[in-house]
Known about the structure:
Rossmann fold, binds nicotinamide-adenine-dinucleotide, alpha/beta, globular, two-stranded parallel sheet, UDP-galactose 4-epimerase, domain 1, seven-stranded parallel β-sheet
Amino acid sequence: xxxxxxxxxxxFIGSHVAxxxxxxxxxxxGVDDLSSGRLENVPKxxxxxxxxxxxxxxxxKLPKDCNKILHLAGQSSGEISFDxxxxxxxxxxxxxxxxxxxxxxNKIERLVYASSMSVYGSVExxxxxxxxxxxxxxxxGVGKYAAENYLYIYQNQLxxxxxxxxxxxxxGQDLSNLRQGMVSIYLAQALNDGQIEVKGNTxxxxxxxxxxxxxxxxxxxxxxxxxxxxxxxxxTGIKTSVEQLLNKICFLIPNSNFHxxxxxxxxxxxxxxxxxxxxxxxxxTSFVSVDTGLENFxxxxxxxxx
Length: 306
Ligand SMILES: NC(=O)c1ccc[n+]([C@@H]2O[C@H](COP(=O)([O-])OP(=O)(O)OC[C@H]3O[C@@H](n4cnc5c(N)ncnc54)[C@H](O)[C@@H]3O)[C@@H](O)[C@H]2O)c1
């Protein structure tokens, strides 16, 4: 049985990715320091190691016989990265560097990395492709881009794939964290008291991608030969303005409304993905629509709060 290491398994995306690999018959070892993730998110059936990947003491506990590393552990908010940029660097960059050395030492065949659209910074109002300049606006984006570059430097010793994810949303997202995840922040506020406070202009736009599509892309990225050495945008190629998103949420959640106040530091004004590489390298052709994704997310919140 193929054994894989998945980091960030107590988090939103990592727990879903781990569930898929377990279902596909892989033996999964999961790591997480539970700094933002929760133990109850860790899927049953995997071997769990609690530890901070920025520490070599955690790296020493990892198995030596894994075939692949899917690296999703990290601090995932641009806004929070300004609170403590050194901590952000440790979580997103030093952890990655440690895993690169671990991968080389143990002859691991591939590392797939959870990067972000935040690496791009300000872009024009057209689909952003992977060869666009990267001038990040947040400490988070700087750390993610540095990690990508370390992977690039060591690519002859450790094969890698970089997934630049856009706005991922869906069931399992942490609704108690009002500083990470545009969709989950608005949805949480609408469900709490019907009052959505919007930090920034409603004309901003994003590329919203549903968690099931992201999980499928991670599976392809980890198993298709065509993914090796590639940096790929993980988005839908469709832009949704903040206003459109808010209107959809307010339509689905009775008696909710929004008002605009202040802004978020390091926030990008508008960004959506050019997905031609994702389509040609991984054969991804269809996506869950925002309407369906939001309905699934809201149904999940009502079930999980019963
Ligand atoms: N959610 C998104 O829209 C999005 C978009 C682009 C990139 N990403 C990246 O994808 C990854 C997963 O994001 P998420 O939304 O699931 O976030 P999340 O916070 O739910 O999950 C991240 C997990 O990593 C763990 N972690 C953090 N630092 C660690 C460390 N040093 N050692 C071990 N574990 C550590 C946390 O406890 C958490 O369980 C992150 O790296 C994030 O930056 C997310």
